[in-house]
Design goal:
single chain; globular; eight-stranded parallel beta sheet; binds zinc ion; three-stranded antiparallel beta sheet; TIM Barrel; 342 residues; 17% strand; alpha/beta; 12 helices; binds N-carbamoyl-L-aspartate
């Protein structure tokens, strides 16, 4: 069996920098035409000038024949100015601004401490410039149970935000709960990762602690997974592909306090296809992978194609580099649906 799709884009991707960038970029480039590149480097990409420089270093790291287009983002802080948004829009290389609540996830320590208190003027300017806000939607209050952090974020931050600025374009990134599905269906957009479609929280503890299944927002109960699967396979245009592929060197995952992030770039398309196939919804796959994202961002759909062939293939146990190993999601497992660019 074979499927031909318009080439997909990845609307949520961590490419990192330096050696890690060089190591992982070929995996994304071999499947996707464009990607929204996350700005949570150390130090974070908080200015247009930094985004332009980061874009140059990504372009330099691309394989020679690649047409891959990185779409850059700015990391919102308490001190981001409305002028920075104007500048970002003017240069044409910045496509969104990313909200990390301070302390919510990997490299979020410089993120926002008080969205309504510190960022309202910037958000108003984003409405003016039609600049989307991409949201890591979890509260950081340690008193809130980690499995409830997405729902509490919707109730206490997102709902008030859209009431105050209904025209602001908002993408709720990597959604994990039925609460997020309801919110998105009522008014906004979301990206969905492969892990939140195929795994529930049992995968964190299967036979022992599984650091390579640990990401944020953390995997949830099966009923939530099912709600997210139903939403994306329903054909709704509010949901689009965003892998959240987030590589960390093996030692930073397999240790006493392991980093959050799943490296899924090599397996994501196979897993999305599996989910749509299992739901009898392969006819809806292409809109999710290749149409809804560019339509939301006001960009043309890709013109080249990708082929997905239903033959078993084995995911490598590890990818090894001079600086160490990166362990992919489902390392050593056999998957079906093998992607190849036409
Ligand atoms: N998803 C993750 O668990 N980690 C991401 C950050 C993020 O997207 O929250 C990372 O940069 O490693
Ligand atoms: Zn995130
Ligand atoms: Zn991410």
């Amino acid at each position: 069996m074979e499927l031909t799709l318009t080439q997909p884009d990845d609307w949520h991707l961590h490419l990192r920098d330096g050696d890690l960038l060089k190591a992982v970029v070929p995996h994304s480039v071999s499947h996707y035409g464009r990607a929204i590149v996350m700005p949570n480097l150390k130090p974070p990409i908080t200015t247009t000038a930094a985004a332009v420089a980061y874009r140059e270093s990504i372009l330099k790291a691309l394989p020679a024949s690649s047409n891959f287009t990185p779409l850059m983002t700015l990391y919102l802080t308490d001190t981001t100015s409305p002028d920075e948004i104007k500048l970002a829009r003017k240069t044409g290389v910045v496509f969104a601004v990313k909200l990390y609540p301070a302390g919510a996830t990997t490299n979020s320590q410089d993120g926002v401490t008080d969205l309504f208190g510190k960022c309202l003027h910037v958000l108003e300017e984003m409405v003016e410039q039609n600049m989307p806000l991409l949201v890591h939607g979890e509260v950081t209050d340690p008193i809130v149970d980690i499995f409830d952090r997405e729902k509490v974020f919707i109730d206490t931050i997102l709902q008030p935000l859209i009431q105050r600025l209904p025209q602001l374009k908002v993408v709720m990134e990597h959604i994990t709960t039925m609460d997020a599905v309801k919110f998105v269906e009522s008014c906004k957009e979301a990206t969905v990762t492969p892990q939140h479609l195929v795994l529930n929280r049992n995968a964190l503890f299967q036979g022992g602690l599984r650091p390579h299944n640990y990401c944020l927002p953390v995997l949830k109960r099966e009923i939530h997974r099912q709600a997210v699967v139903s939403a994306v396979t329903s054909g709704s245009r509010n949901f689009f592909l965003g892998t959240d592929s987030a590589p960390h060197e093996r030692g930073r995952k397999e240790c006493a306090c392991g980093c959050a992030g799943i490296y899924n770039a090599p397996v994501a398309l196979s897993l999305y296809a599996k989910v749509f196939e299992e739901m009898g919804a392969l006819d809806k796959l292409e809109a999710f992978t290749s149409f809804n994202g560019p339509d939301f961002y006001g960009l043309p759909r890709n013109t080249s194609k990708i082929k997905l062939t239903k033959i078993p293939w084995k995911v490598p146990e590890a990818f090894s580099f001079s600086f160490g190993d990166i362990i992919p999601m489902f390392a050593g497992n056999t998957l079906e649906w093998q992607p190849s660019l036409i």
